[in-house]
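Page 37, continued from 36.
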């Protein structure tokens, strides 16, 4: 069963303009799913994680509406059919 990444507007240029990317293979953790995403869209990687392979402070990742900062971070378990949203923080003033 596939996993679907929801791609925000600022990152779509790194995903051939697509608003979502489907990963067909089952993945055990968020880290595994992200690695599969990066194989398809390598430009997204540096915008989502740091050089130490941690989710950037200004990026929020949700697995089925659950913020991964509270569910295990990159080790969050992934079930088949899940939607993963990458949401950059927006600020203004």
């Amino acid at each position: 069963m596939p996993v679907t990444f929801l791609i925000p507007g600022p990152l779509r240029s790194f995903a051939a303009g697509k608003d979502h990317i489907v990963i067909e293979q089952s993945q055990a953790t968020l880290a595994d799913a992200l690695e599969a995403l990066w194989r398809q869209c390598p430009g997204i990687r540096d915008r989502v994680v740091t050089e130490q392979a941690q989710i950037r402070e200004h990026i929020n990742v949700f697995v089925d509406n659950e913020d991964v900062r509270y569910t295990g971070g990159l080790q969050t378990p992934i079930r088949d059919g899940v939607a993963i949203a990458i949401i950059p923080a927006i600020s203004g003033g």
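The chain has one domain: 3-88. Flag for discussion at group meeting. The radius of gyration is 12 Å.
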